[in-house]
Amino acid sequence: MTLPHPLLKLDQVRRHRAGRPAVERLSLTLDRGQILGLLGVNGAGKSTTLAMIAGALKPDEGRIELDGQDFATHPALARGLLGWLPERAPHWPELTVLEHLQAHARLRGLRAGGLKQACESTIERLELAPLLRRLAGVLSQGQRQRLGLACALLHKPRLLVLDEPANALDPVQVAALRKVIREEAAAGAAVILSTHLLAETTAVCDRVAILHEGRLRHDAALDGDHAALEHTFFEIAMNGKDQAA
Amino acid sequence: MSSMGSVARLELRRLLVRPLAWVLAALTLAQLAWRFVLLLGNFLDNQVKLAGTPGAPGYTDLVGIPLLGSTLTMGILPFGLTELALLVVPLLTMSTLAGDRANGTLPLLASSGTSPAAIVLGKYFAVLLWLLGWLALTVAMPLSLAHGTHMDSGKLAATVLGLALTLAALGAIGVACSAFASLPAVAATASLTLGLALFTANLAAQKAGVGNGVWNWLSLSTHLEALLRGLVSSADLVWFALVIVIALALAIRRVATDKERG
Fold first, then answer.
1. What does DSSP assign to residue A138?
2. Tens digit of each residue's pLDDT (9 = 90 or more) over B62-109
3. Which parts pass through the membrane (chain B) (predicted)?
4. Does A107 contact B260 at a Cβ distance shorter than 8 Å?
5. Cβ–Cβ contacts within 10 Å for residue A171, how many?
6. Rounded to a whole number, what is the distance in Å from the CA of A208 to chain B's nearest CA?
7. Please, how many CA atoms are within 13 Å of residue B97, restricted to the half-sphere of its CB?
8. What is the spatial distance between Cα A184 and Cα A167, in angstroms, rounded to a whole number?
9. Does B10 contact chain A (CB < 8 Å)?
10. How far is A67 from chain B (nearest CA, A)?
11. What is the tally of helices (H) and strands (E) in chain B?
12. Rounded to an integer, what distance in angstroms lies between the CA atom of residue A121 and that of residue A154?
């Protein structure tokens, strides 16, 4: 059965930041179970795009739809539907890992038994048990990334937005991250992850979009051909060529 | 409502685990306890003289109320709770929103579907709860001798109401300053300056012998003074409500525009 609308739809979205266009007339859709890799060099507009999808930034123009509803007029949709790991995994340094998980669960509307169960399963899944009593402010960057990912996953979101999730993770943790992303997609969640690492995209994504200077230059299914993707990426990054599929 | 409660709980937890709130509470309560002992000593020294004077002020006027405010009650010692609040509230509120903005956690709250109003009000109520606890511990000092003295409970209640409203107004101003500032230190400075300006707005008018007019109406001390005298008027209550509502509305507006500013 085909659902009438995609889980995420961006329609002609524009956004200026620091006086320059950061995202220009971006349109894309994402269906349930898809893993979209958002590629681009630094400053391409990836983080701005993800912040708009997560509801932390408003587009200057255009429309974002979540589950068929306008996100601008229904911002509370984010509560149950969306999990976001921003770049650098922001945290409250004075709170412990467990307090972070509990606070995020409450913010997502989980209470009592549901909250406890969500925290326990996420702790087990991301192997956070040894860190529970540690203050977030003293965690390493990799540990903070794991905490941020845990906070994004706690409430079982249907759309997972990950901004540079593999930052500062060691190879074992990167493998665990890829496993989590695949599991989420297999469970029906849509995942959008931004990265500037081609290997990260080819390892886990089934579709890739390349942003350059705020514009979508390439959007196609990933066929596993790393060399072809690398060629396309460098063509766009160095020469700014459009490669829209 | 539930998201506001979640934000309030989170903010209260952050307040309770930070050393700043505990240090502020310990130092100010120690200072207030010392002030209470000195005021009580002075009251006991003059008890014989006071007993012979018809209509002389009692324990409430000479100990209870001066403990809470010195400038307005012309107490014998400086720095009652009112004056300390001018310094304590900015320090307590400076990180509420400016700290989240500096940490990058404010967008996280926004992306959890929590409205700007729930974010601001949740943080405000957490700070207010701490401030009311601080006020309760201070008021407990004069109340601890209530069984052995003739306490004017109506007057003390009006004073406590005045102090609670003052703390609520200063807290709202502090949260608003934190909403507009990018750094907590800037928020604290702005909040302290605004609090002092609001407190002393009528000084020049009073020195010129003007007892009414716009500067007197604007000043926090005009409205608090009436309550410290035991006079509860709806005009004063409306003034406090106006300050709180305006400050919080500005803070909500500023947090809402964060999504547009980026």
1. G
2. 888 888 876 554 555 667 888 899 999 999 999 999 999 998 999 999
3. 20-44, 64-92, 127-146, 158-181, 187-205, 226-252
4. no
5. 8
6. 24
7. 32
8. 19
9. yes
10. 15
11. 15, 0
12. 8
Q: Would the CB atoms of B112 and A51 count as touching at under 8 Å?
A: no
Q: CA of B64 to nearest chain A CA: how many angstroms apart?
A: 37
Residue A2 has pLDDT above 80, yes or no: no
CB contact under 8 A, B13 and A99: yes
Four-CA torsion B65, B71, B198, B14, nearest 10 degrees: -60
Q: How many domains does chain B have?
A: 1
Cβ-Cβ contacts under 8 Å between A and B: the total is 81
Q: Are A193 and A35 in contact (CB under 8 A)?
A: yes
CA-based nearest distance B189→chain A, Å: 23
Using an 8 Å CB-CB cutoff, list chain B residues near A90.
103-105, 107-108
| Domains along the sequence of chain A with CATH | 8-91+156-239 (3.40.50.300)
- Residue corresponding to tokens 């307090």: A99
Token pair listed for B54: 């018809």
Show residues of chain A in contact with B123, CB under 8 Å: none
**Mean pLDDT taken over chain A:** 90
Residue A77 near residue B113 (C-beta atoms within 8 A): yes
What was the ipTM of the complex prediction? 0.89
Chain B touched by A155 (CB under 8 Å): no
Contact (Cβ atoms closer than 8 angstroms) between residue A214 and residue A45: yes
Q: According to the model, what pLDDT value does residue A245 have?
A: 46
Question: Which residues touch B104 (CB under 8 Å, ≥6 apart)?
Answer: A86, A88, A90
Distance of alpha carbon A15 from alpha carbon A35, whole angstroms: 24
The answer to whether the Cβ–Cβ distance between A86 and B10 falls below 8 Å is: no
